[in-house]
Each structure stands twice: as structure tokens, then as C-alpha cells.
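quick one: magnesium ion bound model?
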Amino acid sequence: MKIKTEAGERHVLAITVDNEAGVLAKITGLFTARGYNIESLTVADITADHALSRITIVTSGPPPIIDQIIAQLDRLVPVHKVIDLNDAGEAHVEREIALVKVAGTGDKRIEALRMADVFRAKVVDTTLTSFIFEITGTSDKVDRFIALMRECGLVEVGRTGVVAIARGSEAL
Amino acid sequence: MTEMSGADMVVQALVDLGVDTVFGYPGGAVLPIYDALYKHPTIKHILVRHEQAATHAAEGYARSTGKPGVVLVTSGPGATNAVTGITDALLDSIPMVVLTGQVPTTLIGTDAFQECDTVGITRHCTKHNYLVMDPDRLGPIMHEAFHIATHGRPGPVVIDIPKNVQVATGTYSVPEFIQHNSYRPQVEPDADAISQAIDMIAAAERPVFYTGGGVINAGPDASAALRQLVSLTGAPITSTLMGLGAFPADDPKWLGMLGMHGTYEANMAMNRADLIIAVGARFDDRVTGRLDAFSPDSKKIHIDIDRSSINKIVPVDLAVVGDAGRALDALIAAWQDKGHKARDLGEWWRRVDGWRATRCLDFPEKKEASAEIMPQRAVKALFDATRGRDPIITTEVGQHQMWAAQHFGFSAPNRWLTSGGLGTMGYGFPAAVGAQIAHPNRLVICIAGEASLQMNIQEMGTVAQYRLPVKIFILNNEWMGMVRQWQELTYESRYSNSYSDSLPDFVKLADAYGWTGLRIDNLGQLEDGIKKMIETPGPVIVDCRVAQLANCFPMIPSGAAHTDMILQPSDVTGTMDDEAKALV
Ligand SMILES: Cc1ncc(C[n+]2csc(CCOP(=O)(O)OP(=O)(O)O)c2C)c(N)n1
Ligand SMILES: [Mg+2]
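yep, here:
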């Protein structure tokens, strides 16, 4: 007997929660306990009094599972609101930052710098044999940049994961 | 607002919240609270013999009264012992508040003596939990915890209280009213959804009500409303294991329980219906059987207080989020406002009667006095003997539980206490203790299996200490019968470790604890034995020897459709394919 798994589409969820101990564990634990995917997760508090945090989760699953994820998140006591930014009519902006360290000399070094320029990546640190680039964009763009840097002496990457926000004048 | 110790605040909050009973067990990390309890004679503390039993007793108390059960245990092993009952309460939506002691805040994280990460361990088996780091927060948290445990879909809440927080002083404050800033379950159903629902019900040709524990949780008024709605519409009704008692079993519209060990008529009606009205039930796998064959031609209305239960397993046509009682009231009002009249469901009822004619709960038995007792007969005899006494029945987990569900008729809610979602052996006896504490003058009977009973049998001491007249009726088949039954069905009767070997002499055990012990060996002794059990004051254990190899039917094997019920032992084959074996 083989165990089957179902493919699904990518969704970006924005969640506001009470900024208290254990909330993140509760949310990530819900994903592991119920077998949902987490592709990326970011969290930071967003109010002046530090009472609320915003969590952005990139997940994937068939539509009924995405619905379940939202309903399950929504019933957790410290969760205020859950929005699926991929819902119809919810056009949104997504950004991710990566710090990309590339080591090399000569042509490789020049090629790295040239491509960074094309991607509008900033040089935030340099030595005679290395650069650290800062690149901001959609995850796709960051992926593509990192893939190119592999050819130019990539040694280390740090990524923030996705933050996202709906377009238009309304708040979550 | 008064200055007092954290421990005093805990007790004061219990008093203010109207708590009369706490089930608990002391230890180093809760000594301050135990000392505070000592000074408050209005709160009765029931000293159990194992913390798991405290949680099940609290569940029994809660399920039989509708009030939250309260548990008090120490840190470390006290808390971990409580985890099974907490999880049980989560799966069966039982309101419960568990107070756990914790090492002082200064020692948290150091692997201190009897330290465990209680909030971490219970995070996913509670509805919510708290670690209280500041005594000033104790008052508000205690009140909020009770609110959360009892509002929306009920469930267990843990409050972990470090010992220094119990000793330190602070200000006790009571929130004026609790409006949690993020937890606000929708109680009132949407009027449009109700209006659509009632039109669907009025138009249906083959409707069935499928109700669950949510109706019981919504209070006795919800059960009354259910009866009224069923009678207005004239539709048949079935319920889950957890929902038994919401609708009277002697009403002609009652089809019996549905699901794996449900009746043929209930499962066939679900399968052939054109409308399912699910109320406070959650389409559990024990109920649906094979999903792609579940009620294929019906529209489905799902009324539930927990939005995440809707469309979780079975996609429905109309969702009504709200309290079951409010929704049922609203449906009745809408039925009357719109002037709906019950349709002629005669054709549908004729089909139902056809399925009923299989008499699926009948069982073969010998009638002479020396014959061995069929377990079903024992349950029926118990039911007959306790009619008119309005007993509270608890069960352990196994065949006896299913036979009790099939053959004991309930006519009111809060009389049937069983572990449905988690299926916890060891639940029934302590739950009976909790129910008896809440109802000192009622007849409380635990229908037990000899194996399950041994999981919390130490509570015989608790019963003796508080002089509780609890009755334990063991359907002793000398087997973990349900396990044996599955081994027969799936593993060609290779009985791996399912025999109840080295059983104690339950009559002598009764004697050792100061109980009365009785033994029933054959059919001729059954009625008198039960009568004696009921009439004997104080706690009684009955070792009722039943047919050892009887199996529980009807049965839908895991992963089979409602229409593929095994009705008789002769329908049983000996093995299954791996797909079926992998199902629980
Ligand atoms: C704590 C726990 N462990 C294991 C099981 C699995 N299990 C389900 S029924 C059963 C046998 C119960 O035997 P008994 O109490 O004698 O009841 P019977 O089926 O014989 O009526 C077992 C082991 C369980 N439900 N709970
Ligand atoms: Mg048994």
C-alpha cells in the first residue's frame, strides 16, 4: 500500500494575533498537528502598544484545505483575524528580503555585480573577495537572483520569508 | 479589589464563579492552593486516587450538569497524568478548567524538580491555556478561562500557576463582564441561512435529522426544541453516540444511533435521504463510513457553533454557524412564520419501516435459566430494571459501550456519559464518580468492560471515602472484546494480546474496598442480580459474566459504505486488504 498526498495551490494568509507568549507555537503547532504545509512564516508586532502581532504564512493546499486552515486558525482564542490574500478580489503586494553573500574574484566578481544591478540588488557589504547583496522583491524574483548567484560564487543566503498586504485603502 | 495571596485569589475566584466542587490531588507545587481551600469550606474538594480520574470525574460532573468541571493537580506528573482527560474533554467538547501547579517562575526552564512544560504539553489538547506569571493577572485569567471553557464550542482550559505566584500577594480583580478581544464565537444564527434552511426542510421528500453532542451542550432547551422541530416536520431522526438522549428513544421517529455500530435503518436512511439536517454533529469517520459513498444524493444543512467543523469532512450545501438551541428555535419560528405544513412523508416512512423490519439489533440467545447471558440481554435487562428511575449511565470503551448505546434507551439529555471522540478506556468509572457527586441521590451506573475498568479501578477508594452509591455493572467477557472482534474481522482471529488474563476476583475486590460485590453467572440470575444491585445502598460492583465471544453488530467495517453493513456474524469474512487495514 502507498500513501497518497494531494497537491494544491499557494496561498498567502495574513493573521493578526495577540502578541503573547505561546501564540506562535500554537499556530505552527496547528499546522504540524493537522498536516498543513508552511512554506514561509514571518511575524512581528505591529502596534504602538505591542499588543498585536501580524503573522504572514505562505501555505499550499487544495481549496477545501485552505478553507479548513482559515477556519481552524480563526477559532484559536488569541487570533483576531485571518485573511486569505489570494481570495478573489484581494489583489495584494508581496515582498521578501534576502541577504546574499557571494565570494570570488575577477570575472565572477564583476558578473555578480552586473547581475545584482539588473535585479536592483544593493551591495550592503564588500571585501576584496566578497559581496553581500540585499535584494527585495517577490519570492520568485529572489529565487531567480539566488539561482544566478549560484553560478557566481554564492556562499550563504538569509531570507526573511514573505510579508504581504492587500492593495487598496482598507485595513485588514 | 483586595490584596491577597495568589492562592487565595484562586479560591476566591472559584467561589465567585459559583464552583461548588473541585476534583484534585495535592502535591508540592499546589500546596498553597490546598491550604487556601482548607479555609474555604464552601468548596468541596474530591480527592481522587489518580489525576486522570480527576479529569474524567470533572467531565462526568460537567456532562451531567451542564456546568464546567474543575480540576486541581500539581506540577510535573500531576499535570501529565491529567493530559488524557484534558484531551478527552477537547474531543467531546466538555467544559472543564484545570488548575495545575508549576515550579516557581525563577526555576522555570531549569529542569527543576517536578517541572514540565505544562502549557507546551497541553497547547494542542486544550481549547486555550495560560501560564500566570503575575498574581495580579490571576483574577482576570480565572474568570476569562471559565468564560472560554463554557462559551462557543465548550472545551478544556488549563491555567498553569507557578508556586511563587500562589504565594505572592497582589490585587484580586473581577472583570465586570467578559468580552474577550479576539474570542467571540457566533452564537446567533444568520437569519437568511435559517430562512433557506427551513424552506429546504419543508420541501424535502426524504429528510433525516442527524444530531450530535452539540445539542446536548446547548442545554435542555435545545433538546426540547429539537423534539418540537422533529414533530413539526414529521421527519425521522438519528444521532451520534454523543447525541443520545437529546431525542427520546421511544418516539416512533427515532431511528437509533447511526454510524459504525448504528442501526440499519439509521444508516440506510442517511444513505437514501434527499436532505440531511446535521445539528451539532461533526461528520466523524465513525459516522460517515466511506466518504465517497456517504449520503450521495442528499443536500446537506450543517448547523454548528464551530465554523471549522463545517465542510471539514463532508462538503455541505448550507452552513448555519451558531448555537444549536438558538438555531433550532429560529427554525421553529421560521416554520411557523412561513406557514409551512408538514409534507406527506408516507412513502419515505414506508421505506424506513422496510429497513426497520430487518430488526438489526436482534441477537441470537438461549432462554433457559442456566444459559449464558448475551451481553445485549444484560443491557436490556438493566434498562428495563431502571425505567422510571431516571438513571445516569456512564460507559467505558469497547463492545459494552456500543451495546449500551444500542440497547439502553435514553429519553432525556445529560443522562448518557461516554467517551466518544477519544474513546478513552478508563473514562467511565471516574465519570460516574463525578456524576454521582453532582447528583448524590440519583442512580448512577457505570456499564464497564472488565479490561477498561482496570484502567482507573483505584477510584474504588474515592467512592468509599465519600460514600458514593455508584454502581459498576461489568459486562465481563474476559476479553478486550472490541479488539478481539477486529482481530476476527481483519486478522483471521489471531488473538494477539487481547485476552483479559489474570483478572481479579471483582467480588473480593469489592469487599477489600468496603463495597458490595455481586456476581451474575447465568440468565436465571440476571434480573435478581440487577434488582439487588439497585436496592443495595452504597457502592456495588456487579461482575456479570456474559458470552465471551459475542460480537457487536450491526457493523460497518472501517472504510465501508453505509450500505455495506455487516448485520450478522455469518456475514463476517476473515481478512481485509491493506487499505482497509490501515483505517482505524
Ligand atoms: C486507553 C485506551 N487504550 C486502548 C484502547 C483500545 N481499545 C478499544 S476497546 C478495547 C478493549 C476494551 O475491553 P473491555 O473493556 O473488556 O470491553 P469489551 O470490548 O470487552 O466490552 C481496547 C483495548 C482504548 N480505547 N483506550
Ligand atoms: Mg471485555
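The radius of gyration of chain B is 24 Å.
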